[in-house]
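Researcher: I'd like a candidate sequence for this fold, 210 residues long. If you have to choose between options at a position, lean toward the conservative one.
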């Protein structure tokens, strides 16, 4: 009888440990799944910018859009204003304007449309329409020393190992004005946050105007 009780007790302990071990495995597996799911969600949010500019934009044929940047009639300045001041004074007018893919007027801008419109308004120069065309045109003249960047210079960004896909106008104090992406508006952003890791060079306004 005593041996039977001992056997039953040992069997109970073994079964309890087995179930406890399985519960722990289940808990750890659940934690691991939740972690992977959270990581995937974070990656998707982090890649929103990349998806917006490298996937979504590739599906749009700009040649089929009705773009009229020539409607940006050049400003008349009654007092002397430097070229750089003209650009900054113009682009700040559009802070808060909604982002619209293919937008190239104050009803809505995409990143390169904002740049094209601003330069046309301030200096009556029609620069290339898209970020790709703009960066390609001045590829050999891009600078990379941010200590040398000045008001009004064009600043370019890209995803890691990807082509240049975004552009803004440097506005001073380590900031730039741009039209970031859909569901957003023209705004000012700091370079030394998310954007410094995407920095792909800047173009001097002087070279653009000359």
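Model: Candidate sequence:
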């Amino acid at each position: 009888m005593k041996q039977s009780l001992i056997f039953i007790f040992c069997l109970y302990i073994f079964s309890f440990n087995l179930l406890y071990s399985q519960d722990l495995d289940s808990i750890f597996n659940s934690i691991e799944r939740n972690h992977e799911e959270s990581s995937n969600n974070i990656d998707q949010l982090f890649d929103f910018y990349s998806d917006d500019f490298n996937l979504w934009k590739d599906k749009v044929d700009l040649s089929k859009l009705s773009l009229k940047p020539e409607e940006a009639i050049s400003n008349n300045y009654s007092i002397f204003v430097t070229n750089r001041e003209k650009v900054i004074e113009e682009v700040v007018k559009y802070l808060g304007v909604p982002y619209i893919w293919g937008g190239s007027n104050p009803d809505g801008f995409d990143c390169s449309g904002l740049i094209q419109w601003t330069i046309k308004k301030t200096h009556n120069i029609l620069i290339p329409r898209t970020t790709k065309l703009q960066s390609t045109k001045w590829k050999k003249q891009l600078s990379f020393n941010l200590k040398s960047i000045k008001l009004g210079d064009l600043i370019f960004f890209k995803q890691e190992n990807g082509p240049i896909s975004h552009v803004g106008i440097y506005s001073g104090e380590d900031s730039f004005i741009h039209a970031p992406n859909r569901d957003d508006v023209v705004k000012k952003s700091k370079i030394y946050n998310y954007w410094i890791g995407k920095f792909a060079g800047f173009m001097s306004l002087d070279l653009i105007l000359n």
